[in-house]
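About this split. The held-out portion is used to measure sequence recovery: a designer receives only the structure tokens and must propose an amino acid at every position. Recovery is the fraction of positions where the proposal matches the reference. Here is one held-out target exactly as it appears in the evaluation file.
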């Protein structure tokens, strides 16, 4: 392009070049920033769904603690399990893919157990009797395990390599008696 000869033409010519530079820089920066922004958005949405899943499990655990002492028969256990599942369905704003409610590890409402372990995945149940000591001033009790799983579908990244991260799960063990 030929340089303008008059000052007025030079000012107009340099403004057009600056606008073209700005457009080019914007396009270059946008191509780098867009994947980062969508990744952060996906991460934020996944974190939000995980919090909603945790709130759902908490609501079910609160119900189990309040209603778990009244289980004295197989029919009461069946009603209790159905009600906890209804609480999970009603409290969850996200799509639940699976839910499990287990009373005393094997749906055994007659026995008492001593529980040890730091999480539902590592918990071990030792058969005991009502009122027996489990050590550390803890008495044998009855427990409900609640596990809820949901599928997170990202906005952009749907790679099969990331499929393991799309399963959100939360579980809790609560003492009911």
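Reference sequence for scoring:
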């Amino acid at each position: 392009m030929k340089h303008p000869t008059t000052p007025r033409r030079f000012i107009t010519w340099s403004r057009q070049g600056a606008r073209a530079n700005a457009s080019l820089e914007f396009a270059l920066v946008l191509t780098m920033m867009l994947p980062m922004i969508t990744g952060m958005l996906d991460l934020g949405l996944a974190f939000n769904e995980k919090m909603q899943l945790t709130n759902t499990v908490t609501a079910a655990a609160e119900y189990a603690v309040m209603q778990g002492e009244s289980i004295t028969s197989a029919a009461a256990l069946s009603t209790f399990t159905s009600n906890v599942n209804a609480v999970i369905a009603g409290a969850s704003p996200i799509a639940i893919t699976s839910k499990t409610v287990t009373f005393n590890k094997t749906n055994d409402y007659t026995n008492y157990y001593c529980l040890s372990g730091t999480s539902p995945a590592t918990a071990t149940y030792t058969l005991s009797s009502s009122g027996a000591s489990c050590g550390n001033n803890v008495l044998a009790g009855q427990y409900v395990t609640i596990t809820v799983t949901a599928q997170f579908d990202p906005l952009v990244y749907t790679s099969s390599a990331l499929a393991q991260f799309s399963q959100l799960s939360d579980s809790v063990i609560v003492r009911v008696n």
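Annotator remark: DSSP finds two helices and seven strands in the chain.
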